[in-house]
Structure formats: C-alpha cells, structure tokens
Amino acid sequence: MDMLTIKFVVLFTISLAGFVVYIDMLDKTKSRFNIKEEKGLWYKSVNKVHKWSQIAIIVIMIFILYLTIFVYQKQLKMYCFMIYPIILTSFRAFMEWKYEEESNRYRINILDSSFLLLQFVVLGLASLWF
Hints:
The chain is built from four helices and no strands. It is mostly helical. Helix 2 runs antiparallel to helix 3. The longest helix has 30 residues, at about 5-30.
C-alpha cells in the first residue's frame, strides 16, 4: 500500500470510531435523561424567535458561502462546511436550554455540536497531514 492509502485508512478508522462513540453516547444520554424521540420529519422550533433566527442564520450562511465561492473565488476545504452545522446546533442547544430546559433536548444538540466540532478538528489536522 502506498502512503496516501495508509493515511486515508487511518483517517477513516478514526472518523468511524468517533461516530461509534457518538452513537453510544447519544443512546446513553437519551436513556439517562429520558429524552423522547421527536415525531415528524422537520425540527420543531421552541418559539417564533427561534424559528426566524434559525432561518436568518441559514440565509446568512448561504450568502457567505456564495460570496466565498463565487465572488471571491476561494477554494474551500471540505471540512470548512462543518462550521455551519456546528453554529446551527449550538444555537439550537442554547434556545432549547433557555426556553425548554425541562425537556433536556438541548443535551442532544450539545452532543451533536461537540461531535461535529471534534470531527472538524480531526479533519482539519488531517488536512495538514495529507
């Protein structure tokens, strides 16, 4: 095997192990805090401020991506796209903690943000390695 293949296998293994740990922690968190599964296809906002703030964040993110890629013609690394879900899940966690603390759903979003942030760091460091 050449060196690039070995690096890819190592990165894939680390990412897969992180995902397995994340799924395990997600199950343990749901059972420990008795968090029920949300019904429906879409995420349900806590209130109207939350809903419209999320829409504004998404629109701003799309606008920034458009400017970066098409106007300034900068090439982005793939792991840079993970910043946006990190921001969005962190905002969701804050809003749920602030307005629906008793539901404990914010703990799931904190776990999601943490996992995405860890993957962002790992992929960022791996891009230096490649």
